[in-house]
Amino acid sequence: MPNTALQRDPLYRQIYKILETRILSNELKVGDTLPAEQVLADNLQVHRSSVREAMRLLEENGLVERKPGGKKLIVRSPDRDKLSSRIFNTLILEEVTVRELYEAIRILDAEIATVAAEKISPELLHKMEENLRQTEANLGDNAALEVLDLEFHSLIAEGSCNRVLQLSRLGIAHVFLPAANRLMKQLDVNQRLLDAHRQIYRGLRDHDPEQVRTWVLKHADDFVRGYEVAGLDLDAPVSFTDQ
């Protein structure tokens, strides 16, 4: 790596930005091994401790990882679960409302499902069939339904074959779960959820974008009607739990 003059403090953040830029510009590709700390320190003419702190920050942000039992840092793509957690935390701390969340999901899910209707694979349709069987078998178990509902919509996103659309749902879906679970505790909506999922699945199976869009929107709007019937506040901030 060429010499790079570091003019501002803190040094470790400057080093981090240099390495981040090299990763994002594909100079360092996924799977590449980062140079050793001392090599980088000598190259940048800084103390090794600053390089070590920069490496720690790269790990924290999911850009590098250590293989089990290994010491070398390998360039990687950030973990989706960690990205989801960050978005989740941000939405909670920003105190976005249930209504805002509903509006966002309504728009995103309708567009994602419309694309998926044209692209979804037989393998994913098979997974959705199994999801529907499990949903029917667990209609009395809200905790199981929460997981199955999340999986169902994740399969639709995967069916879009578009990573940007898939990533757009990260965090949002998990924030929505406590609100949905709160509604399940107030009203018996589980059968309606299954019926909507079946209709969405049929549209996907038949590659019918119009049916899919129609039922995704009905499914989202049904949530709002349920909230109103249950006397729950759509303009209340989303919460970490379903209490």
Can you give a write-up of this model?
By secondary structure, the chain is mostly helical. It is elongated, with a radius of gyration of 23 Å. It has eleven helices and two strands. The protein has a two-stranded antiparallel ribbon with strand order 1-2. Strand 1 and strand 2 form a beta hairpin. 67% of the residues lie in helices and 2% in strands. It has two domains: 11-75, Winged helix-like DNA-binding domain superfamily/Winged helix DNA-binding domain (Arc Repressor Mutant, subunit A), CATH 1.10.10.10; 81-230, Four Helix Bundle (Hemerythrin (Met), subunit A). The N and C termini lie far apart (53 Å). Helix 7 packs antiparallel against helix 9.
Q: Which characteristics define this entry?
A:
single chain, mainly alpha, Arc Repressor Mutant, subunit A, Four Helix Bundle (Hemerythrin (Met), subunit A), 2 strands
Provide the fold topology.
Blueprint lengths: L10 H14 L12 H8 L3 H13 L3 E3 L6 E3 L4 H14 L4 H22 L2 H16 L4 H18 L3 H6 L3 H15 L3 H16 L3 H22 L13
Antiparallel strand pairs: 1-2
CATH architecture term of the largest domain: Up-down Bundle
- Write down the CATH topology of the largest domain: Four Helix Bundle (Hemerythrin (Met), subunit A)
The CATH superfamily of the largest domain appears as GntR ligand-binding domain-like
The count of domains is: 2
SSE series? HHHEEHHHHHHHH
Quote the average pLDDT: 90
